Amino acid sequence: MAFQPLELANAFVSIALEHRQIVSPMKLQKLVYYANGWWMEQNEGEPLMEGGFQAWKFGPVNLSIYRAFKKYGGDPITSPCHGIVLRGGNYEYGVPCLEDDSALEFLEAIWASYGAISAEKLSHMTHVPGTAWHEVYKRNKKDIRIPRSLILKEFQGRLA
């Protein structure tokens, strides 16, 4: 089952706040990207989240997450975002929350591996030759989608 991008983003924001760590919008994007890639690698190519990523100058970006947290700029995120959520068969405005225990445990493991790494370093890591971003990025071009197949290829056989 694929989750909503804002559910994953808010879970990482909550994890960061619980650990008294700083997470900026750029770092958040990279954490969700790495979580999605590792999930795909471990789950036969099934994505962790609905939607996808675009190749921007500083690495992979999910537009929903970008729009929800862009008000922070490069500053630390201080709280989860609000958005449209499905509750009891109805759509309403609220805080998208990830309520799947195994997915939350997985995100905790991703945080344990990547949470201490700076946004800049995480961004740099997505630019290494052979990564999905590196394969599709074109300077001064917008709206370049990163195919899921390339994300899966990036993470297959890789050690965390």
Characterize this entry briefly.
This protein has 160 residues and is of the alpha+beta class.
User: Nearest-angstrom radius of gyration?
Assistant: 15 Å
**What global shape is seen?**
globular
Query: Residue share in helices?
Result: 40-55%
| Termini gap | 23 Å
Query: What can be said about the biggest beta sheet?
Result: 3 strands, antiparallel
Percentage of residues in strands: 5-15%
Order of strands across the main sheet: 2-1-5
Mean pLDDT: 94
Instruction: Give the H and E element order.
Output: HHEEHEEHHHEH
Provide the number of structural domains.
1
Low-confidence stretches: none
Enumerate how many helices there are, as a single number. 7
- Structural class given helices, strands, pairing? alpha+beta
Number of strands: 5
Assembly state here? Answer: single chain
